[in-house]
Amino acid sequence: MHADGGCATYGRNAVKRRVALALAVLLIPAMPRAAEPPSEAVLADLPFLPATARGGENEVRIDLAPPGARPLPLLLDTGSPESFATPTAAKALGISLRRNKQTPYRRATRLDRDVELSVDTRVSDTAESAGGEWAVLGARFLSSFVLEIDFPGRRVRFLDPKRFAVPERAEAANQAVLPLRLVGNRPIVEIEVGAVRMPAAITTGAPGTLLLAGGWAQGASLTPNPEVTATLAPAPGAGRLEAVTAARFQIGPFAESEVPMLVAEHGAQGAGARSEAWLGVDLLKRFVLRIDYPRKRLWIMEPAP
């Protein structure tokens, strides 16, 4: 009788434990998902255009033309203060150039706001072809929106800042919210290279990983790559370029090791030896970014593989 009662008691306890475990599993909160903007906040949802031979697969090019209008392919560059086009690229967009025009050319967009493109008609055909033909969507235009760039999904969304805001804090382990500074509407975020913390401009028009101003190199744990350096010509204003590998790079909680990058003696475009680094698309390509210009916040997420 005692044995039977013990077995019965054990059986009842086992059932209770299984029920309790099942309830516990049900009550475990799921990992928070990224707050999805409401549909009324999405002003435009655009795919990346096919890559050009010059730009590579990570190039962020979108067509901002209104529905049914002539295409308006633009390179989205958060690091360019203004929108501009080279003369050849402007003509390809259907812009009739006037030699003495001093003000930007305007083109309508699907965002119910014209983009103003500066075109320097003094550029010669030879100089232009050497530097490339570009039509660039710059930060003055972008700064009116919350801009989402989904590199893995190859999409760009323009969000209405009156209907959606980047939160003050991240909602999951694979996300972070970082403060931004805006310099000429360019978003500047703090990064780490080795043991050195420095400002970096998020530059979606820049290929490569990172262009580091020479003044930050000391203490950044950089290993020179002389064979690559030998192939580099000095950049206008930037002085000598050196190819290096950083032992560690970090933005927010996200880190990478053994990252190849360039050091510009006088900074990008000669901005100075302690000027902002240029954070390029090869380091950004694993992330989804939301740049909240009005509130000066960057939301960054690394999607699950």
Describe the protein's architecture and organization.
It is a single chain. With 305 residues, the protein is an alpha+beta fold. The chain has one domain: Beta Barrel (Cathepsin D, subunit A, domain 1), CATH 2.40.70. The protein contains six helices and 20 strands. The strands form three sheets. The chain has a six-stranded antiparallel sheet, with no helix packed on it. Strands 2-3-7-4-6-5 form a six-stranded mixed sheet. A six-stranded mixed barrel has the order 12-13-18-14-17-16. Strand 8 (146-150) and strand 9 (155-159) form a beta hairpin. The longest helix is centred in the first third of the chain and has 26 residues, at 2-27. It is globular and about 50 Å long. Mean pLDDT is 87; it is low at 1-33 and 126-130.
